[in-house]
Prior knowledge:
By secondary structure, the protein is an alpha+beta fold. The chain is 32% helix and 33% strand. It is built from two helices and four strands, in the order E-H-E-E-H-E. Strands 2-3-1-4 form a four-stranded antiparallel sheet, with helices on one face. A hairpin with a 6-residue loop joins strand 2 (30-35) and strand 3. The chain is globular, with a radius of gyration of 11 Å.
Amino acid sequence: MHSIQVYIDETLDEKSLNELKQLMQSLPHVTNVEVNSKVPHDMLVEYEEHFNIPMLVMDKLHHKGLHPDIISG
């Protein structure tokens, strides 16, 4: 399993973080998503190996009007 840590420039409230978590978990081959309202800029996305999920995650976040960066992968 692989994972990426995403930094989101915008400060999101708990409701928005949970909505993003649900969106990310609905993506094919994503196995887990972790968010924490105490660290509202960070999201961890775990996904199955052999799939190019990081670009899909970035695309979905951009379409939500957010400004994400991958800070570790």
